Amino acid sequence: MSNCTIIMEFFLMEFSSVRELQVLHAILFLLIYIAALMGNVLTIAAIVTDPHLHRPMYFFLSNLSLLDLGCISVTLPKFIVNSLTGNQSISLHGCAAQIFFFLFFAATEFALLVAMSYDRFVAICLPLHYGVTMTPLRCLWVAVASWVSGLLYSAVHTGNMFRLPFSGSNLIHQFFCDIPHVLKVSSSEIRDTEYILLAMSSTLVLFCFVFLIISYTYIFSTVFRMPSVEGRYKALSTCLPQLIILFLFLLAGMVTVLGPISDTSPVQSLLISMTYTYCLHL
Which residues are paired to 90 by β-bridges? Predict the structure, then answer.
């Protein structure tokens, strides 16, 4: 241990070595962040203030907007400040906080997307049972369960990753702290344990994915059997946006976790995340 240096801070990747490009890049993402911030806030405000939107689908949508607001606020502000100041360092606790809150919001968001899919399944396939099944109290409990599951998921993974001190490289080839790049500079013991945890959580994700496939199969089969064209259009207009959001969410997650960990091309993860954020408000 006397030959090892305990790491207390990391250095994130620069977008460019040219100072002018760094500032321009920071301003661009600041505008994107402000637009996403306003979109989420306006969505939540509209749902809260309009009594006609006090329905399960919009209740889950308001939670989704709140989670998206938290998710982009975990990484983008720090990234923008680093680009403006030219200081790419982040403390060990700051890195742990980024991973914890990012996983927390992302896991909760996935749970809510699954709940929203079930809401659409009941509304389209079992419309006569919708009022009895999706009561306000049950919707509240589903939302609470989603937030708690995200909290537990994040706590387990973050606690495992930072339970031992880092003593290797303190360079992270990414614009923010995420699991693949932090694992790359962690010890082999931490990596082995994290891969086991990821494999266990992947089983649960696979189960949810099968449930989603079955649900949307029933949904689309019911929609295409509707005799009214107006009814088919109304049903598709409520479930297709959720399906697109779910697809983009899973795509961003797969690229982040399963994509190659490159030292020179981390831009794709950030661009996909921002694309998901933008499409969420279309």
Answer: 10
Say which residues have a Cβ less than 8 Å from residue 198's Cβ, sequence separation at least 6. 257
CA 160, 256, 71, 50 dihedral sign is negative
On whether the CB atoms of residues 178 and 256 are closer than 8 A, the answer is yes
pLDDT digits (tens, 9 = 90+) for 170-212: 888 777 888 877 888 787 788 888 888 877 887 887 888 888 8
d(CA 165, CA 163): 7
pLDDT tens digits, 26-73: 888 889 889 888 988 999 999 999 888 888 989 998 999 899 889 888
Dump the DSSP string for 201-259: HHHHHHHHHHHHHHHHHHHHHHHHT-S-HHHHHHHHHHHHHHHHHHHHHHHHHHHHHHS
How far apart (Å, rounded) are the C-alpha atoms in residues 56 and 75?
30
- Residue 180 · residue 102 · CB < 8 Å: no
